[in-house]
Design goal:
A hairpin with a 5-residue loop joins β6 and β7 (299-305). The protein has 459 residues and is an alpha/beta fold. The protein contains 17 helices and 9 strands.
Length: 459
């Protein structure tokens, strides 16, 4: 749905802009640049993220900021391509035309989302450990137009389901349930696959136009994370979707090296300024150095600009408990991720990649390895400066939240590809450019940050 929406709105906005520019003898290039700037701004201001703009009122509140950023992008593009400039009067009219196209279209779209006639009825087959998480994730995404009508399975298993899921009958009554409720989609999530899944009936239903999907795959597509409760290492061995080939790994490594070298060259003038600001703001070293766990469990020293006041006692195990230690300069560095710049050096040394799971402190490793299922799979790739978990779930402050982040990390490892890396980079740029706080419960910007349980006076 989202790619279709982006395509439709881009075409409509471009057509409207081009038609409006004809009055001023405008060109195709002018219309293209104007459209590109505003579509880019809409993306970076979450107008295409329906988890952020669930209602039309949410959309309206983000419109002013999106148009302001569109003007900034347009000014930059005109500096690069001066021939693309258009008169101020024409620009004002074009902005009004964009609003005239955008607002009615989105209003109609939200009206369709609210209409139950256009929603897709989902039946969950089975009451295994996947059933309730799948239902919960669907319910948290009303913009996807899914309605869970209930589950079919052993009634004795219904006690393990919560959240008001309705039991519709035993597996043997699947035909009757289909006739009565006419589901559009069946999600197969049994407690045990052997002897519990009516394969022939499901084949027949699929041939009759009902979508039938594996619960684990549906969950991953829906959420962008894996279900640890049912995950097995074999899914990484035999998975067909992963783009993790030798070519991809070589390209990823080469890209990380090039970006790091260029990044260091471009940001080198900032290093003495940041160092001076850190030193003047609070006593202590300029850099924060901490032992982290890398690929295959190898320990290495990760570099950051110091953003916390030093302490003599042992710090808390969780970052949220150390928010009071963040300095004024440190808060500003974290907001725009400037404290991460020294990690370009770690990339060049081979410790890290540009994209990958964030490395955890050595001090936290035993706890995570013991308590989080399949945690060791994180160690099969190099850690990254940014990652899928950082752009999707952001930051954790307890073991439960850290486990949730690992779901995203393992999804990345299972599905890693050049396209996924590119998406992560674009999402990271959005966070950096807009200076958004990425935490969920505290001002600390890394789930296993400088407040980890280490006796370190340089934090």
């Amino acid at each position: 749905m989202l790619p279709f929406l982006v395509l439709i709105e881009t075409a409509a906005i471009f057509g409207t802009i081009y038609a409006g520019l004809l009055r001023w003898n405008g060109t195709f290039e002018q219309a293209f640049i104007l459209t590109l700037c505003y579509i880019t701004s809409f993306f970076y201001n979450d107008l295409y993220d329906f988890s952020a703009v669930r209602r039309f009122s949410d959309f309206l509140t983000k419109i002013p900021r999106a148009f302001a950023w569109g003007l900034i992008l347009l000014a930059v593009s005109w500096g690069i391509f001066p021939d693309a400039r258009i008169p101020a009067q024409a620009l004002g009219i074009e902005v009004l035309l964009i609003l005239a196209v955008l607002l009615p279209g989105r209003a109609a779209g939200y009206a369709v989302l609210r209409c139950r006639t256009f929603r897709e009825r989902v039946l969950i087959l089975g009451a295994g450990p996947m059933a309730w998480p799948i239902s919960r994730e669907i319910q948290s995404r009303p913009h996807l137009r899914f309605d869970v009508i209930g589950f079919v399975g052993n009634q004795t298993d219904s006690d393990s389901l919560t959240g008001g899921m309705t039991w519709l009958g035993e597996t043997s009554s699947l035909d009757q349930v289909i006739k009565e409720y006419s589901p559009h989609r069946i999600i197969v999530a049994p407690a045990e696959r052997r002897g519990e899944v009516p394969v022939r009936k499901l084949v027949e239903m699929r041939l009759n136009g009902i979508a039938v999907e594996d619960g684990e795959e549906f969950y991953e597509q829906l959420t962008g994370k894996v279900m640890l409760e049912s995950l097995s290492p074999s899914s990484f061995v035999f998975g067909r979707r992963s783009g993790r080939t030798r070519v991809h790994l070589a390209i990823g490594r080469m890209t990380s090296m090039v970006v790091s070298a260029v990044g260091l060259a471009l940001t080198a003038p900032l290093f003495p300024l940041i160092a001076l600001a850190v030193r003047l703001d609070s006593p202590g070293p300029i850099f924060y150095v901490q032992d982290r766990v890398g690929r295959r469990g190898r320990r290495y020293r990760m570099l950051k600009f110091r953003t916390m006041r030093s302490v003599e006692r042992e710090a808390s195990a969780w970052a949220g408990d150390n928010g009071y230690r963040i300095t004024t300069v440190g808060a500003w560095l974290r907001k725009f991720r400037l404290d991460e710049l020294p990690q370009f050096v770690n990339i060049l040394l081979g410790d890290m990649n540009l994209v990958g799971p964030r490395p955890h402190p050595v001090s936290n490793f035993p706890l995570f390895a013991e308590k989080i299922p399949q945690y060791e799979l994180r160690l099969t790739v190099r850690p990254g400066v940014t990652g899928w978990a950082q752009t999707r779930y952001l930051y954790a402050n307890n073991l439960e939240q850290e486990t949730e982040k690992v779901r995203y990390d393992l999804y990345y490892i299972k599905h890693m590809s050049a396209w996924l890396d590119l998406r992560i980079i674009f999402d990271t740029i959005k966070v950096v450019l807009l200076g958004r706080r990425s935490d969920m419960t505290s001002p600390v910007s890394d789930p296993a940050h400088e407040g980890s349980r280490v006796h370190d006076t340089a934090a």
